[in-house]
Amino acid sequence: MVLLDQTQQALEDIVAELCRSGAQAHAFACDLAGRDAGQRVENALSELGVYCDVLVNSAGYGVFGPAAETDREEQLELLDVNARALTDLTLRFLPGMVARRRGGILNVGSITGYAPGPNMAVYSASKAYVRSFTAALGAELAGTGVTVTCLSPGVVRTAFFNRTTISQTRLFKLMPRSNAPETAEAGWRAFRAGKRLVIPRLVDRIIVSFRVLLPDAIVLRLISVLQRLR
């Protein structure tokens, strides 16, 4: 395994733990917001003498607040990480997978990708892109031996929410939460089974069903009310 993160020390700690359990792992510190990130990742794999058999695109973050009042560069950087880097890495390593007729891609989306998100407009749009991109690739790759899966969880207890004030909203406090290990396991099982989409928990699947069935106007009004800080 080659693990990517911005923080070298955090990576090295995880790699050390994995190696103690008998796994072969390497750390590569990289900021995926950089335009050269994809090439740097490809170079790192080449130096290690390995190729990408399974790509897990799990990097991402959110920005909370009205789009017109939120820093423009921060919103654009969000797109760089959540959408552009995911696409770049996918397009770099997918041809090799197809040529080998094996491997695949696990993209981490979100149930927020099923509806517009006031005060998280760019984030929700980025996750809608991940869902659409994954679904299209899955159809293209049918019969190639390569699978593409979109993992779309609800609220997961991670450091993701440390960057925004969304944790102070009514919506966040009402949303049921899951933990990262269970979510990751559900995603991996679905990927191994060749599923194109997995929403791990029943409660999140019910939420998505309501979002799909209800008109956008109602969904947007409801989300706007629940996103007020309290």
Outline the fold blueprint.
Layout: E1 2-5, H1 8-20, E2 26-29, H2 37-48, E3 54-57, H3 72-100, E4 104-108, H4 121-140, E5 147-151, E6 155-157, H5 170-174, E7 177-179, H6 180-192, E8 197-198, H7 202-213, H8 216-226
Parallel strand pairs: 1-2, 3-4, 4-5, 5-8, 6-7
Helix pairs in contact: 2-3, 3-4
Summarize the structure in short:
The chain is an alpha/beta fold and 230 residues long. The protein has eight helices and eight strands, in the order E-H-E-H-E-H-E-H-E-E-H-E-H-E-H-H. The protein has a single domain, classed as NAD(P)-binding Rossmann-like Domain (Rossmann fold), CATH 3.40.50.
Give the helix tally: 8
CATH architecture: 3-Layer(aba) Sandwich
- Total individual domains: 1
Please compute the radius of gyration using only Cα atoms: 18 Å
The percent range for strand residues is 5-15%
Please, what is the average pLDDT? 89
Going by helix content, strand content and strand pairing, the class is: alpha/beta
Largest sheet: 4 strands, parallel
| Overall spatial form | globular
What does this structure look like?
The protein has a single domain, classed as Rossmann fold (3-Layer(aba) Sandwich). With 230 residues, it is α/β, with parallel strands linked by helices. It has helices spanning 8-20, 37-48, 72-100, 121-140, 170-174, 180-192, 202-213, 216-226, and strands at 2-5, 26-29, 54-57, 104-108, 147-151, 155-157, 177-179, 197-198. The termini are far apart. The longest helix is centred in the middle third of the chain and has 29 residues, at 72-100. The strands form three sheets. It has a four-stranded parallel sheet.
